[in-house]
Structures are given as C-alpha cells and as structure tokens.
Specification:
Number of helices: 10
Distance between the termini: 43 Å
Number of domains: 3
Order of helices and strands: EHEEEHHEEHEHHHEEEEHEEEHH
Strand content: 15-25%
Structural class: alpha+beta
Largest sheet: 14 strands, antiparallel
C-alpha cells in the first residue's frame, strides 16, 4: 500500500513529456471518473484497477473531496486482485477430475479428454473466484503541474508499468520516469548534456567493470559513490539551490555489488564502522554502490530515505512529523504540509546531484577521482 501519510513512504518520480493542453486541468475530475475503479466483488474477474479518491478508496465519484488541492492534483490508483492459493486450486481440480473419472468409468469410458480437463479447470476456477474476495491495494498519486512532476507511491516495476499505462489512457499524456539520466536532462543545458553523452564510465580501480551498463545506471552508481566519499570527508559542505547549508550522512545502510552475471557478489552493510570500512575497501576492488540510505539535515528538518542507483526510486522516505490539523483548520493542511516536506527533500537531493554533475563534467573530476581512490583504501 502506497500511502503518503505513512511514517515512511516509497515512491517513484515522473515527468510529463507531452505538451499539456491548457484545458486539461479543468477536465481532470471528469477523466478520473471516466477511468475510475469498478468493483469486482460480485464478478468473476481476477483483477480490476482504476482511479479512486485520495481520501477514500471506496469513493469513485469524488464526493469526499475534489482531486485538486491548491496547486496539486491528488488521487489514488486502486488495484484489486483475487489471490487463490495454488494448493487450493490443485486440491479442488483433483477432486473434480476424480469425480469426472468415476462418472466416465460408469459410462464405460477410460480417459478424460483434453478439452474436458480444460472445461473442468475453468469451472473450478469460477467456483473459487466466487468464494475468494479480491484483496484491495491503494497507491497515492500527487501531480504537481508547476514542477511538471508526478509522484506515484510505489517502486514495484509491475505497478509502475500499470500506472503509466492508465495515466496515458486517462489523460493522453506520456510519462517519463525520472532516473539518473533523465534527471540530468532537467538540470543541465544542451551543451552540458552533449558532454555527458560523451562521458565514459569512471574507472575507480583497474577491476572496475562497466561493460554493457546503461549510462543512467553508471551515473547513479558514480553519484552514490561520490556522495559517500563527500559525506564521509566533508559532511556539512553542501548548500541547496538558494545557497543554504545542509549536511549529508550515509552510514545507515549501504549496498555494494561487484562482478557480472552468475559471478555477481552483493554485500549489504549497516551501522557499525568495521563493516562500512570493509565495504569501502570493496570499492577499491571494483565494487559499486548500488543502493544507500541517505540522511539529510537542513536546520531542524531531517529526512532519511534509501536511493537506488539504477533508477533513483526513493524507498522508505521519512520526513519530519506532520501534525494533524485542528477541526476548524483547512482539511488539506496536513497533506499540503507533507507534500511541501517531500519537495524540500527532493530539492536537496537534486541540488546534490546537480553539484555532482557539474563536477563530473569539469576538469576537476580527475582530481576528485584520485582523492576518492585514496579514500577507498584508507585504513583509519
């Protein structure tokens, strides 16, 4: 379940890549109702999905609250799935085949035809579907036209594909997932993107193997490796786009990976100094940071999340606690505060990535790599 109000939330960032007609935003409520979820409790279907109200997944008419909240649009993707345990299907099919065999033997026959077995299986599944209610799941969506971003509260590949498909069907707009490369497109100009396209993967060691990797994954891994180095050496030497200082730490949980194919070796380290030192040595032997838990602190705001190098999906994001509003306050106040905090966190992350990209494309990168190599083999 992808709930923005949860203590921690995992989500994927997207941007709309098609021109948005000016009249579309007034049509969003109508389009949401057009492609709203349809209940299958009394139907034999195994799965159903569609849009529902952000505040109430049982509301497909948006009577509880409209989707527009200030400058944002919020709604949810609901997916209902019937889950019939395979063991039950196997048992009921065996019983049906046994009864059928006894029946045909009484008629002097010996074998059940392939077509009849297929019919029996369909009958068994139909009966079981009537006995098992579908399990509902809800995934929040926040659409920010001003930033041209859409957040979807899931990082599962199948759910992401389903969401993107329903989004284009509903609104006629294509989404692009914001991964390391596409995020760079939003932070760099055309000349800088040309330089980035010509970049080769950094060889931190002789054992580094980046053959066959997509540029986006390479950028993600280099960014997390650089960020670990920076946060260990100068944790407080970061500023946001307004020039305000903040600090970064990456000592909660780090995943490093080396090798290719069947020889791939993955190690997850957390917390204590010794395993982290060992993981840092692993970087000196050609391993790469593929995932890391990052902690950002700006004034009294603290954020923590896990960033995946491959696609920049954010896992288990924790923001400062949002207090429930008083009864006479704006009913959307809590949600808008949560969205604001998520925007602050993403702004800090983007400023870190922008700094990395500027350095990556500059002549100073080679000196940075030399410093990182020394850091990887540091024994203290």
């Amino acid at each position: 379940m992808g709930n923005i109000y949860s203590a921690s939330i995992s989500f994927t960032r997207f941007r709309v890549i098609d021109p948005i007609p000016s009249e579309l935003f007034t049509q969003i409520p109508e389009k949401l109702r057009q492609f709203a979820f349809r209940d299958i409790d009394d139907l034999p279907e195994m799965q159903a999905y569609g849009w529902v109200c952000f505040e109430d997944m049982l509301d497909t008419e948006w009577r509880t609250a409209p989707p527009q909240k200030g400058n944002y649009f919020t709604f949810s993707l609901r997916l209902d799935t019937r889950r019939i345990p395979p063991a039950i299907i196997k048992k009921q099919l065996s019983l049906a085949l046994k009864a059928e065999k006894e029946k045909i033997q009484a008629q002097g026959k010996k074998f059940i035809s392939r077509e009849r077995k297929k019919d029996l299986k369909e009958q068994v599944l139909l009966r079981l579907r009537q006995r098992f209610l579908p399990v509902p799941a809800e995934f929040h969506v926040v659409w920010e036209p001003d930033r041209n971003e859409v957040w979807f509260a899931s990082t599962q590949g199948k759910m992401i594909d389903l969401f993107m498909e329903l989004f284009i069907t509903s609104f006629g707009l294509h989404l692009e997932q914001i991964e390391p490369y596409s995020l760079a497109e939003g932070l760099l100009d055309d000349v800088e993107m040309g330089k980035l396209d010509r970049c080769e993967a950094t060889q931190f060691t002789m054992a580094s193997g980046n053959e066959g990797q997509m540029l986006s994954s390479v950028l993600g891994e280099e960014f997390l490796t650089w960020l670990w180095f920076q946060s260990d050496v100068v944790p407080g030497a970061f500023v946001n786009k307004e020039g305000h200082p903040f600090s970064v730490s990456m000592e909660q949980r780090i995943v490093v990976q080396g090798g290719q194919g069947d020889a791939k070796d993955t190690a997850t380290v957390a917390g204590t100094l010794s395993p982290l030192t060992e993981a840092r040595f692993g970087l000196g032997k050609g391993k790469k940071v593929t995932r890391a838990t990052i902690r950002l602190e700006e004034d009294d705001l603290v954020f923590q999340f896990t960033l995946k190098a491959e696609d920049f999906t954010l896992g288990s994001l924790k923001t400062p606690k949002v207090e429930k509003p008083e009864e006479d306050d704006d009913p959307d106040a809590m949600l808008l505060e949560k969205i604001y905090l998520m925007e602050v966190c993403l702004g800090l992350l983007d400023s870190l990535y922008a700094r990395f990209l500027q350095l990556r494309l500059s002549p100073q990168w080679q000196q940075e790599v030399a410093d990182m190599r020394q850091w990887m083999t540091r024994t203290e």
